[in-house]
Design a protein that fits this description.
5-stranded mixed β-sheet; alpha+beta; transcription; transcription regulation; 17 helices; DNA-binding; AraC family transcriptional regulator; about 325 residues; HTH_AraC
C-alpha cells in the first residue's frame, strides 16, 4: 500500500494555510522533495513519503499542527502529549474519550465528540470555526483519529459510514483511499460511524511502542492511503509489483474464487475495470520508483513492462502531465 499515490489536489490544499501566512511554498515543496510543477498540474500525483515530509515541513515552518487552518495554532507536540495522556487507558472507548477531553481543553480547537448509537458509535467533528475552504484539516483530523484508534487496538477498524457537511468535491473518487466505506455529503455533521464493539477492545500499545509511533506520526497516518477491503485493493495486492508477469483477469478471478464474469460485474459496481486498475498501479509504481535513486528511467521503464523508454515517457505524461525526467529532476532542484 505504500505505493498508493496521492493526488496533487491534496498538495495544493495542504499548503494554503502556509501560503496565507506568507511562507515560501515553493521552498517548502522542494524541501519535501516535491516538484513545484505538481501544484499546477491537476493530473500530477506524489508518493506517500513525499506527502509525509511536506506535512512535517509545514508543522515546523508554522509551529502549528493545524497547518494554519485552525482558529488558533496547535503547537507542535500537542498531538504527542495527547497520545501520552491516553496510552495507559484500558479500553479504546476510555482512550478516545480522554483524547477528546484533552483537545476540548483548548477553547479554539475543533470540538470532537464520541457517542454510542446502539451497536454503532459515532465520532463527530465540529468544523464550523475553521479557516479550511478545501476541508483539508477536517479530513486530516478524521483520518488521524481513525488510524490512531486502529493502531491502539492493533487492528484496522472497519468504518460503516463517513459523513461530511459539505457537497461532494470534484476529486471524490480519491476518497476511496481515505474513507473506504459508504460516504454521504451535504450531511448534518462531519463524522465517522464504526461498530461499537471496537470501543470495548483493550489497548495493545504502551509507552515503548508509542515512542516509536510518534517518530513519524501523525504525518505518516495522513500519508498512508487505505484501500480497505475493496475488490480493487484485493486485485492490486494480487497483481503485486512485477508488471512483466502480471496475471490476467481470468487468473485473478481464479485466485479470488469467482468467475471472470462475476469479477467484471463487481468491478463495474465499484466504478472500475481491470485495465484501468493495471494502468493506475503502473502509474503509482512509476511515481514510487522515480522518487528513489536506485533505478534509472530506462530501468524503471523495463521494470514496469514497457518495451522501450519512449513508450514509458508517453504513458507517464498522459498519466500525470509531466515527463519522467521533469518529475524526477523537479524533485531534486
Amino acid at each position: 500500500m505504500r505505493e498508493r499515490t496521492i493526488a496533487s489536489h491534496f498538495v495544493r490544499a495542504a499548503v494554503q494555510g502556509a501560503r496565507r501566512q506568507g511562507l515560501d511554498v515553493t521552498a517548502l515543496l522542494r524541501d519535501a522533495g516535491i516538484a513545484p510543477a505538481v501544484l499546477d498540474e491537476p493530473r500530477a500525483r506524489i508518493d506517500p513519503d513525499q506527502f509525509s515530509r511536506l506535512i512535517q515541513r509545514l508543522w515546523e515552518a508554522l509551529d502549528d499542527e493545524y497547518m494554519g487552518f485552525g482558529a488558533m495554532p496547535s503547537k507542535r507536540g500537542t498531538f504527542a502529549m495527547m497520545c501520552n495522556a491516553i496510552i495507559h487507558c484500558r479500553t479504546l472507548e476510555k482512550a478516545l474519550g480522554r483524547g477528546t477531553l484533552f483537545y476540548n481543553l483548548f477553547p479554539s480547537a475543533p470540538r470532537i465528540h464520541l457517542q454510542r448509537e446502539g451497536e454503532l458509535a459515532r465520532l463527530t467533528l465540529d468544523d464550523q470555526h475553521l479557516r479550511d475552504p478545501d476541508h483539508f484539516l477536517v479530513e486530516s483530523l478524521l483520518l488521524i483519529w481513525h488510524r490512531l484508534a486502529s493502531w491502539l487496538i492493533g487492528q484496522r477498524i472497519r468504518l460503516e459510514q463517513a459523513t461530511f457537511t459539505y457537497p461532494a468535491p470534484e476529486h471524490q473518487a480519491e476518497y476511496d483511499l481515505l474513507f473506504p466505506c459508504p460516504r454521504r455529503f451535504a450531511a448534518d455533521a462531519t463524522s465517522l460511524l464504526l461498530p461499537a464493539r471496537y470501543l470495548d477492545m483493550p489497548l495493545l500499545q504502551d509507552e515503548r511502542t508509542l515512542k516509536h509511533f510518534l517518530k513519524d506520526s501523525p504525518a505518516d497516518l495522513l500519508a498512508r492511503p487505505d484501500g480497505g477491503d475493496s475488490l480493487t485493493s484485493q486485485i492490486r495486492r494480487l497483481l503485486g509489483r512485477d508488471c512483466r508477469n502480471w496475471p490476467d483477469l481470468e487468473q485473478v478471478a481464479a485466485q479470488l474464487h469467482i468467475s471472470p464474469q462475476t469479477l467484471r460485474r463487481h468491478l463495474r459496481e465499484e466504478g472500475a475495470n481491470f485495465q484501468d486498475l493495471k494502468d493506475q498501479l503502473r502509474r503509482d509504481l512509476a511515481i514510487y520508483y522515480l522518487g528513489r535513486d536506485e533505478l534509472s528511467i530506462q530501468d524503471i521503464a523495463d521494470q514496469l513492462g514497457f518495451s522501450e523508454p519512449s513508450a514509458f515517457h508517453r504513458a507517464f505524461k498522459k498519466w500525470t502531465g509531466l515527463t519522467p525526467g521533469a518529475y524526477r529532476n523537479g524533485e531534486r532542484q
